[in-house]
Design brief:
Number of helices: 19
Radius of gyration: 50 Å
Order of helices and strands: HHHHHHHHHHHHEEEHHEHEEHEEHHEEH
Strand content: 5-15%
Shape: rod-shaped
Largest sheet: 5 strands, mixed
Number of strands: 10
Length: 603
């Protein structure tokens, strides 16, 4: 390949790359609709105009072809150099705008456009006079003027946000014009390195702008493909040189076939390298794992969706990722839950010209599936919890209804016996009947003021029992002897209402009443570790084991007590009955002390 061929190839590749890059910048600017995009669009238009016309200019010259439209051709060439000359002015305008509204900014912008306008006029004058293009005077004007302007702009924009980035863009734009001095200031042919620097110096500006503002689009649409093609060409040329040097032409076709087969692997390797090194794309395997771990500890639908959207936003470098049940115009991924409501993940405002590629969409769909499965699990758990809660509420209502019914059974039962005693005393001893009636009134007041299910204390229960025994003493007189032995420290132990009174009533009714000589009743309490044992002993007639079993089944008082103990304490409480004919009956109630205190505090 001759030097002229190399120079032609440099022109062809360089200007085509410039056309592609500035066209990409124009498309990205139009799509982005960012503030100040008219300036960016002007930059893209000027760069595109220069590279498009220069491609024709140097292409015709390198191929030795005559210029079309001979009379208009000098003006077309002059306009191309004018477009290149206005490129630094537009970039200066953008740099001053990025520094904010400061005093003196308009002057710098006006000076930059004035320089470019003067240089453009000189180019057009040279074209009208038939002088070589580009004009030496125009190049000197822009080179000296923008070199000075870069220094002033550095002082003006110093310490402003992004001032280094803006200054570098201005420097690159000015370099694109200054580099023309490396050639002979004509469209003649130089060595390929000189031509590369002299006529293709606008490429770095496009590359920098695209990388800074549209990194993802630049890498996805341009850089990946260029690197793949260049690498493939390099491998092919290297193999060709090796084969030619070793005279193994027969192996050349085999190596080319191997290169073609290796292309998918080579392409995948380069794409992954660009994603990781240049774009710094997130590892989507880690993203999925992070979403799984994050939502696994959440048990409400909104926090689950919020957490997943935030992780996706960071991974995609998006301005905003939200969820909704009514999707709008945006990139939308459905969260496939098994039941309504169904949610959608929306991606808004991808940064740096990024597009959602197939890998991105696959990640979004995987995240949506993870979120959907977690929401389904939460819904099942909440449904089960709600069902259990409803069952507990129904059970609680049933238990309260049962306790109310037990109280309704118990109170009339006791009242019937008490009134029978008062009726007997009214005939035998009216004064004693009146005293007994007052005691009964106090007893009923103490019983009725206790609400259903409310825990009292052992002292409260003993107060009721003493009132009851006072009523019974009026009937039995000296035939009934009562002993109560309860330590003071046990008086405050919580106890369900009317637990002991029915047992005392049973002892008198079924044990002592049938004996003509009466009997003795002993009520005692003691503490055994974490348990309080209450014993009610009577020296009545006693019953056999079979009769005792029947009474446990049919008796109202004893069955009520068993039901209440089971409700309050479960298996932690117990009631034991021992009886023998002619000896008497002993009933022992055992309740856990700490359990009773905890239940009282909870109530």
């Amino acid at each position: 390949m001759t030097p002229n061929d190399t120079t032609t190839l440099v022109h062809l590749v360089g200007f085509l790359a410039g056309v592609v890059l500035y066209a990409m910048l124009a498309v990205m600017t139009v799509r982005q609709h960012a503030a100040g995009d008219r300036i960016a669009l002007a930059t893209a238009a000027l760069g595109l105009a220069w590279n498009s016309v220069a491609l024709v200019i140097y292409g015709l010259h390198d191929l030795g072809l005559p210029a079309p439209l001979p009379r208009a051709w000098p003006w077309i060439v002059a306009l191309a150099f004018c477009a290149l000359g206005f490129l630094p002015a537009v970039v200066v305008h953008s740099a001053v705008q990025s520094a904010g509204r400061r005093r003196g900014g308009g002057t710098l912008i006006s000076f930059a456009y004035s320089l470019s306008a003067v240089a453009g006029a000189l180019q057009l004058i040279a074209a009208g006079r038939g002088e070589p293009l580009p004009s030496r005077a125009a190049l000197m004007t822009t080179s000296i003027g923008f070199a000075a302007l870069i220094v002033v702009l550095a002082l003006y924009a110093r310490r402003q946000p992004g001032w280094r980035r803006a200054l570098s863009a201005v420097a690159l734009a000015a370099f694109a014009v200054m580099a023309l001095h490396l050639s002979q200031h004509t469209t003649g042919t130089e060595s390929w390195p000189t031509e590369l620097l002299g006529h293709h110096a606008s490429l770095p500006l496009a590359l920098v702008i695209l990388y800074q503002d549209y990194r993802f689009a630049f890498a996805d649409l341009f850089l990946k493909r260029v690197l793949t093609v260049v690498t493939l060409l390099a491998v092919t040329v290297a193999l060709y040189q090796i084969v030619i040097a070793t005279q193994m032409v027969a192996v050349l076709l085999g190596l080319w076939v191997a290169t073609a087969l290796a292309y998918p692997w080579l392409r995948r390797l380069i794409y992954n390298a660009v994603d990781r090194v240049i774009l710094r794309r997130a590892d989507y395997t880690k993203v999925r794992s992070e979403v799984t771990a994050c939502v696994a500890v959440l048990d409400q639908e909104p926090p689950i969706l919020d957490a997943a959207c935030e992780i996706v936003r960071v991974a995609l470098t998006a301005r905003q990722v939200t969820w909704t049940s009514a999707p709008r115009e945006a990139t939308v991924i459905r969260v496939p839950t098994t039941e309504e409501p169904v949610y959608f993940i929306e991606v808004h405002g991808l940064a740096a010209g990024r597009r959602l590629l197939s890998d991105d969409l696959a990640m979004l769909e995987a995240v949506a599936l993870i979120v959907a499965r977690r929401i389904d699990a939460v819904r099942v758990t909440q449904e089960r919890y709600g069902r259990d809660l409803r069952e507990r509420e129904i059970l609680q209502l049933a238990t309260e209804a049962q306790l109310t019914a037990l109280r309704a059974q118990l109170n009339p039962h006791f009242l019937f016996n008490a009134l029978t005693t008062i009726g007997y005393l009214m005939e035998a001893a009216p004064q004693r009947a009146l005293d007994t009636l007052f005691r009964l009134t106090g007893l009923l007041r103490a019983v009725l003021k206790r609400s259903d299910g409310e825990l009292g204390t052992l002292a409260d229960e003993l107060e009721i029992i003493r009132s009851y025994l006072g009523v019974e003493a009026a009937r039995f007189e000296e035939r009934l002897a009562v002993t109560i032995e309860v330590p003071a420290d046990l008086s405050s132990v919580p106890l369900p209402p009317l637990i002991l009174q029915p047992l005392v009533e049973n002892a008198i009714k079924h044990g002592i009443t049938p004996q003509k000589e009466g009997g003795r009743l002993v009520l005692s309490a003691r503490r055994e570790g974490a348990t309080m044992a209450i014993t009610i002993l009577d020296t009545g007639v006693g019953v056999s084991a079979s009769d005792l079993a029947q009474r446990r089944v049919r008796g109202i008082g004893l069955s009520n007590v068993q039901s209440r103990l089971a409700h309050y304490y479960g298996d932690a409480a117990s009631i034991t009955v021992r009886s023998a004919p002619g000896v008497g009956t002993t009933v022992e109630v055992r309740v856990p002390v700490e359990h009773a205190r905890a239940a009282a505090r909870a109530g």
